[in-house]
From TrEMBL:
Keywords of this entry: Hydrolase, Metal-binding
Pfam families per record: M20_dimer (PF07687), Peptidase_M20 (PF01546)
Protein name: Succinyl-diaminopimelate desuccinylase
Domain Peptidase M20 dimerisation: 166-266
Organism name: Mesobacillus campisalis
Length: 359
């Protein structure tokens, strides 16, 4: 369809996706179903898959020995009611998920619709999933486990049209801190577990692993995300649970990080989540090919960088498949003023078209 080739078609599709509150499983499933319906209406043949209640779709075009994967998620973090009503202003489209990452999904869908009739010499598989924001195990993780694999993967996270070669690894864990109870009027007779927790936090920030750096990252990051301790006002708290979100660098050993923390903590450490970092070689032929296309469309030098957060690229990277984050320009994802630059939608879609044709 000729109208697929217009910016208006990408923007219109994105607006329809933004109207769906996909911050919960039911809404995210609805968004996947909408994408499935749209693809069918545009002459494609998506397959709807469900795992543990989460829906995803897979849609493939082309033929050949090589396979390029477009991966995107339509689930979003929670937002205010008005954020699910798209608003266009000053060349920006605002809404929850506008940047992260319904813009990239809409562009990938429109690119698939344009490419479906072409003799590409390569298979292109579009994967749209519904649980990336909550870890990705039920969708992209499931797809990888069931051999929905390829030779190169593009996750359309917002990257300002730059190429994110790396992503930090993730450790989410709790630390139990123990003190000694006493009467609140005589705190010197006890040992305050919450105060000990504060001291421990400062010590963690000075551990050897925190002083390491890489080409893309000056240091790892530690977010003290939650704290739970104390019972009543007039008692020195005897226990405290600290919860951390730690993002470590490619090349660092998560077991060594936990060992260093355990050495200075006198309580139990419980790891709740662990995600491996992503590290894709800048000199990979698929990366160099994309670099040329980015520079053609932006009339500037391609920007390479590392993402601080994790994405579904992790599942493919763990299988040794080169995977990157590469998507439109936007800002404030997960924030109150999340938006995507409208002009980047068409630029990004055209980059995908050229890359698929040249793959």
């Amino acid at each position: 369809m000729n109208n697929v080739k217009t910016l208006e078609s990408v923007k219109t599709l994105l607006k329809e996706l933004l109207l769906i509150d996909s911050s919960h499983m039911e809404g995210a499933n609805q968004a996947v179903e909408y994408c499935c319906h749209w693809l069918r209406e545009h002459g494609l043949h998506p397959k709807l898959i469900e795992n543990n209640g989460y829906k995803m779709l897979v849609c493939e075009i082309g033929s050949g020995e090589k396979k390029l994967i477009f991966n995107g998620h339509v689930d979003v973090v929670s937002g205010k009611k008005l954020q699910f009503i798209p608003m266009e202003k000053d060349g920006k489209l605002y809404g929850r998920g506008a940047a992260d990452m319904k813009a990239g999904v809409a562009a990938m869908m429109c690119a698939m619709a344009e490419l479906k009739e072409e003799e590409l010499g390569v298979k292109i598989q579009l994967q749209i999933v519904s649980d990336e924001e909550t870890g990705g195990d039920n969708c992209s993780g499931y797809l990888v486990e069931n051999n929905y694999l390829g030779d190169f993967v593009i996750c359309s996270e917002p990257t300002q049209l730059g190429i994110a070669l790396e992503a930090k690894g993730l450790l989410q864990f709790d630390v139990e801190v123990h003190g000694t109870p006493a009467h609140g009027s005589r705190p010197w007779e006890g040992e305050n577990a919450i105060a000990k927790a504060c001291t421990l936090h400062e010590k963690i920030l000075k551990l050897p692993f925190m002083k390491q750096s890489s080409d893309f990252y000056p240091y790892p990051s530690v977010n003290w995300a939650k704290v739970q301790g104390g019972e009543v006002y007039n008692k020195v708290p005897e226990s405290c649970t600290m919860s951390f979100d730690l993002r470590y660098l490619p090349g660092q050993d998560p077991d060594e990080i936990i060992r260093q923390i355990q050495e200075i903590a006198d309580g139990e450490i419980t790891v709740h989540a662990s995600i491996s970092p992503v590290e894709t070689d800048k000199n990979d032929p698929y990366i160099q090919k994309l670099k040329k296309i980015v520079e053609k469309h932006t009339a500037g030098e391609a920007v390479f960088f590392g993402q601080h957060g994790a994405s579904d690229a992790q599942f493919f990277a763990e299988r040794g498949i080169p995977a990157i984050e590469f998507g439109p320009s936007g800002n404030n994802w997960h924030g109150d003023e999340e938006f995507v630059h409208i002009h980047s939608l068409e630029v990004y879609k055209n980059m995908l078209l050229d890359y698929a044709r040249d793959f």
